[in-house]
Amino acid sequence: MAGATANLEKIEGWDGQTSPMRASYGKLFMWFFLVSDALTFSGFLCAYGFFRHRFAGEWPDPQEVFHHFPFLHGKHLPLMYVGLMTFILIMSSVTMVLAVEAGHRKNRRQVLIWMFATIIGGFMFVGSQAWEWYNFIKGTDTGAVLYENKMYLYKVDHATHAIDTTTLRFKGAELSKEESARIIASGEKFYGANLKHNEYGHIAFADFFFFITGFHGFHVFSGVMINIVIFIMALQGYMDRVGHYEMVEKVGLYWHFVDLVWVFVFTFFYLL
Amino acid sequence: MSEFHDPFPSYETMSQHDEAHGKKARRTLWNVFWLLLVVTIVEVVVGLYAVDWNLSKTFLKIFFIGFTLVKAFYIVYTFMHLGHESKWTKWVIIGPFTGFILYLIFMMVIGEGNYSMTKRLDEPAAKVEHVDGGGH
Q1: How much is the ipTM here?
Q2: In this complex, is the C-beta atom of B86 within 8 Å of any C-beta atom belonging to chain A?
Q3: Domains of chain A with CATH codes
């Protein structure tokens, strides 16, 4: 092994022998996978930005849509819940990287403790997302009016968040009182969102919400499952028999990637 | 194994460290955690009071995307340990990704965006009412 170390420092180019990357096969290919996965998410977010720009007039304000907080029904608290979710994910990222660091010292006990904390954090995040979806699908108390397959929204006062149930808006434009009354009388109430209708505004908003946060949530869920597998392997002493904890490092790369994606989803979906 | 026929260096030679180095590494990790936390809190506060403080949309876009890139850099550099990989590993990962992203954004804005904004979406959208209306 000492010879190999010296060799690493001596050879600088590939030259048919040593890789200039000085990284193991598994780690490199985890990185390449993450690059391709990152491009998928970039495609999603770019498409989101494009649609949002294209339909700027009828795009819902995220702070008017996501303002729920557990046990505080009816309060208008935008960004609080998603801020909490971000905190949970960043925290679990830290516990993961501490597990990786403990693996570098071959400290099995600490690897297990930190990986367990990461798994708990992952479950908390997936649960939070389920609650977010539940509220989004269930909808607001007032809902919107579905008439002739078109969604008419109630007028909302931006400062007070008060809803005017006598005036409707369609594609960002306000309708007259008479027209609104006619549509309210003949249309039906619609609450929440699915892939076809969405009470918050443009339908693409709900579609992107389901696809992007769903795809991310699926990544988190897979990450938790892989973390559990690695946790059990570490528990059984597999890494000690192999002589290193690189598997923890590789699954850590995946986990941090999930956190990285959330940082972008948080910005583009909730903040902007 | 001959030292000249080892295509990949073994994990032991490169990624393990002792107790003293671990202590230093942990301090860095926690520092990055606090940085990420503070940046997130600042973002949330600015997001909440953007309307009250009369911040312009352009400023908010630059502010939020800028801070997002800062967070992304620290996650990749420290948590994903890319900062301590070899020069070639960094380039092989960052280079193609940046290239594709710039291409994607370029084609979105100049190509597809320009085409759709002027031609494709406007005309059928008026005829085919497949789009829900609304917006507060």
Answers
A1: 0.84
A2: yes
A3: 26-140+200-271 (1.20.120.80), 144-190 (no CATH)
